[in-house]
Amino acid sequence: MVPQTIGALASFLALVAPGIVFELLRERRRAGGRETVFREASRVALSSLAFTVASTAILLGVHAATSKWFGWKVFVDLQALVAKPDYAKQNVALIAYSAVAELALACLLALAVDLVLARRRQQPSSVGRQSAWVKVFREDRPHNAVCWVHVMLEDGNSFFGFLRSYDAAGDPDKREIVLEGVKLTYVGVPVSGGEDVQTKVIGQDWERVVIPSARIKYLRVQYLDAETGERVDSARRPAQEVTENAGV
After folding, report:
1. Do 11 and 112 sit in the same domain of this protein?
2. pTM
3. 164 and 88 share a domain?
4. Which residue in 83, 109, 175, 180 has the fewest CB atoms around it within 10 Å?
5. Rg of the chain over all Cα atoms, to the nearest angstrom
6. Cβ neighbours, 10 Å, residue 241
7. Nearest-angstrom CA–CA distance, 244 and 82
8. Which structural domain, as residue segments, surrounds residue 24?
């Protein structure tokens, strides 16, 4: 069912907002598993309902206490809102305030529950969702360095070359990596049971080679200085060595 008016749309978004906040917080602490849209939407709807009911109950309790002791109206009278047609027109500001207060409290409850669950399960504040390819080719690559990559295929053949591009997102089985350079090299398995490995520099004749990830067995990466061509350590290795030495 699609909301037909702006008010209905705003009300719908307000109702599902606590569940969306809770799911976004939870996704930071867990690896991204695959699930159906129906299951994800159902979890958002159920958590939104729980947080909305809880926040409404708290505000109604506060409203009952303050009305009895101080005569304050801090929340809309739900019974009067349903029973009296003119109540909404006469208390527009109170209804708007109550809706904002309920939404804010529901989102705070989602945050609190997430923190309690994370502390009880000893979960980290966030879990990296980037692929290993992004970490190796982008985050760990030193400044002013290029990636020299060895791609070993499932059939035993392999390629050596400079990284041209790669897919950073999407289905891991459908990603591709592109190698280039005049030193682009092909290393083939021995033919007909021979012992000699076929090594051929193909960079003079071929610009690039595109390799689907589904055929890759593993990747090996070196970082070379873009000017001198000498091998350099990754951006993470110096910090790791300092930490290890400090612990000795």
Report:
1. yes
2. 0.50
3. no
4. 83
5. 30
6. 11
7. 67
8. 6-121
